[in-house]
Structure to design on (135 residues):
């Protein structure tokens, strides 16, 4: 039995370095919503030089009316459709097709970043150790 690929948990600022088709999970703060295209613009203050433009057409019918507000923190799982870093100012932009989203509730964004960075550091160490064992 085949299973869908697992998502990769990343900070929003790392999305712009991901290849198209990558399945990702990330936290972002709503900055804008374009109802004509069902697109959320998410950033991760205070680092607003990176943003995610998230198409929420798929999960939209499951959301309660008025549940998305500017300044609200949300978790997203979706697929990268395009990602780039602008050369002149290093601004990163990722376009994502969301398959699900939910409110982050009372999460502390700074604490979330600390925990995520720690987790990613441990995963990096484990990968390096595994590569050494494979040699």
């Amino acid at each position: 039995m085949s299973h869908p690929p697992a998502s990769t948990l990343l900070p929003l600022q790392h999305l712009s370095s991901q290849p198209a088709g990558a399945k990702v999970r990330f936290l972002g703060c709503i900055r804008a919503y374009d109802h004509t295209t069902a697109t959320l613009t998410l950033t991760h203050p205070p680092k607003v030089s990176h943003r995610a433009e998230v198409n929420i057409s798929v999960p939209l019918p499951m959301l309660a009316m008025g549940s998305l507000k500017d300044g609200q923190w949300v978790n997203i799982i979706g697929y990268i459709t395009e990602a780039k870093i602008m050369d002149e100012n290093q601004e990163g932009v990722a376009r994502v097709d969301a398959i699900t989203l939910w409110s982050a509730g009372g999460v502390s964004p700074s604490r979330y970043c600390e925990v995520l960075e720690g987790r990613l550091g441990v995963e990096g160490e484990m990968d390096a150790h595994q590569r050494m064992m494979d040699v």
